Description:
With 246 residues, the chain is α/β, with parallel strands linked by helices. It contains eight helices and eleven strands. It has helices spanning 6-10, 14-19, 25-39, 56-63, 75-81, 121-134, 148-153, 203-213; strands at residues 46-50, 67-72, 89-93, 105-110, 135-146, 158-163, 166-175, 178-187, 190-199, 215-221, 236-243. The longest helix is centred in the N-terminal third of the chain and has 15 residues, at 25-39. It is globular. The relative contact order is 0.15.
Amino acid sequence: MPHKKWFENWFDSPYYHILYQNRNDDEAKFFIDNLCAYLKPSLNDTLLDVACGRGRHAIYLNKKGYDVTGIDLSSSSIAFAQQFKNKRLHFQVHDMRHIFQANSFDIALNLFTSFGYFETIKEHISALQALQKSLKENGLLVIDYFNTDKIIGHLSHQEVKHVDGIDFYINKQIRDEKIIKRISFEHRDTKHIFEEEVKAFTYSDFENLFTQSGFTVIKHFGDYSLNDFDTTHSDRLIFICQKTHV
């Protein structure tokens, strides 16, 4: 049996959802509201939420009236999201490195740093090429990533989070051009260790990835208010890209 990647183990673990249960849904809705105001999608448009997790963005977009499909590699996350499905909200287990329903979507969304997980640049290009092929002609891709430069400049090497009676010890470091988060804790007399490994992609890295995968950057922002990107101070790096021909 092939060795599972870190994201296959961690995102399918119940502890992932315990640690991150207090993610700010109001912030997510605020971002979606601003994106919709900027992009002005038609209610006839079809949207693809890539690496959707338990579907918080997809569910909110659907409540705003859109036809949304959420895909994620985590079967447990998709199983949770399925309780919210309806005629215009769909969820499916899928690996973003492979094409999902070619030429079917007007907008693809990859939000909350749900990219940069793979070992090689080739895999990241494959994922972007797959998304490019899932989009209709002139379709749009939104990628919401952390601002690597700010993360590195303000790296907190050690912290402890106490959630639901569990002490999560979190260590962060830069290694092999990745931002590594090591999460260790003990629960029910068993020690657990997980790691998150996300590529330290910068703006120029993304430009190269997009060029090789059939996208053109048409706008980029630095936060969920869609303010201009500043390398030193912005929390996020948000791209609006358009499908081009390769």
